[in-house]
Specification:
Elements (H helix, E strand, L loop, with lengths): L21 E9 L8 E10 L2 E2 L7 E2 L2 E12 L2 E8 L7 E4 L6 E3 L4 E8 L2
Antiparallel strand pairs: 1-2, 2-5, 3-4, 5-6, 6-9, 7-8
């Protein structure tokens, strides 16, 4: 992305908060037979590339790589699931709004559980 026309002289710069690159990869496996039938697990990696901290491009927000994981179990019409995002609780800067407003850390480790019933 590029700022094309700007009255403040930022034309040609990259807008703040937009990472240069983003990539995510996720894999999941579920056992379909045997003693572990219905049990599954998954893991993934998210890469958030560096971005500019303001429209003047006077500083850069560093890139971050995060790991996520999941465990799930299907039983009859029920599905139990446990998800963890930012599994290793990596501290990283998610975005900046310029030097005046400052920067914000990304979300730390978050673990959520769910139970679903299919009618």
């Amino acid at each position: 992305m590029e700022i094309l026309d700007d009255t403040e002289g930022n034309g040609g710069n990259m807008p703040y908060g937009v990472p240069h690159h983003r990539l995510s990869l996720w894999g999941d496996y579920t056992f379909h037979s045997g003693k572990l039938e219905g049990f599954g697990f998954g893991a993934g990696v998210r890469y958030i590339g560096s971005s500019k901290g303001d429209d003047e491009n006077s500083f850069e927000v560093p890139a971050a790589t995060l790991v996520d994981a999941a465990l799930h179990y299907d039983w009859k019409n029920m599905k139990f699931q446990l998800n963890a995002s930012n599994l290793f609780d990596k501290q990283y800067v998610s975005t900046c709004f310029n030097r005046e407003f400052g920067c914000f850390y990304g979300e730390g480790r978050k673990i959520t559980g769910s139970m679903k019933y299919r009618w």
